[in-house]
Amino acid sequence: TVGTQTDYRDGETQTDPYSPEYVVPSGSIPELLTLATLTWGRGLPAGLAEVEMIERAREKRAWEATLPPINDSSQIAKRRKMMEDMERKEWAFREQEIEKLQELRLKVLRKLLRRREENQKELDAKRLDDHWQNLQEAKEKKIKKIQHDFALMLRKLMSKRKNMMGKLERRDIIREYADFGSQTYAPLSRIGYFPDNHSERYVVKNFYLDTFAGLCKLEASLPDSVTQVKIEIPEPKCAITETGYVKRSARLEVMLAQVHQ
Question: Residues in domain CFAP91 (predicted)?
Answer without folding.
Answer: 4-156
